[in-house]
Amino acid sequence: MIDLGIKVALGVGVASVALAGYLAFARHQQGIGKAQVTAERQSVVVAKQADVIKENNAKDLKADKVDEHAQNQLAAIAVQRDRAVSAAAGLRSALDRLRADALREETTRASLAAQATAAADGLGECSARYSAMAGERDELSVQVSGLLELAD
Predict the structure, then answer these.
(1) Which of 133, 134, 114, 132 is nearest to 122 (CA)?
(2) pTM higher than 0.90 for the full model?
């Protein structure tokens, strides 16, 4: 009987060691599975981050292009404004000459009429330029609104 008791105890011991080994192996496999899931999740997160970075870079590039276009438009308007200011100054000088000539008696009606026509033409040109600049200002206002939307 002692042999049977030892055999049973030895069998139970071997079974417990085998069970412990199996449980340890199962836990190890479970850990590997969790690590694989974690690695897969990390790769998905990295891929999504790369997509977001790519999208942000595209938005930045677009915003830079819009900004450059707006700056070019502003420069063109500044040139037109300077021309209009110069034309207005010339028109003021022409009007001053016209007034001075009108005060002098030696000026003929023909020269006064020619000067008045030139002054009216200058005023018409200034008015047209002012209208064009106002239209471009409105266009730039729309572009700035677009830039503000990109910034949000």
Answers:
(1) 114
(2) no
Under 8 Å between Cβ of 120 and 92: no
For the chain, the residue count is 152
Alpha-carbon distance 92 to 81, whole Å? Answer: 16
For 104, the 3-state DSSP assignment is: coil
Which of 122, 123, 134 minimizes the C-alpha distance to 81? 134
d(CA 152, CA 146): 10
- The domain tally of the chain equals 1
Whose tokens are 């003021």? That residue is 92
For the segment 111-142, what is each residue's pLDDT rounded down to a tens digit? 777 777 887 887 778 778 888 888 788 778 77
By residue range, what is the domain housing residue 130? Answer: 2-151
Question: CA 39 to CA 24: how far, in whole Å?
Answer: 22
Q: Rounded CA gap, 144 and 134, in Å?
A: 15
Please name which of 116, 136, 126 lies closest in space to residue 86, comparing C-alpha atoms.
Answer: 126
Q: Which two tokens stand for residue 110?
A: 């023909």
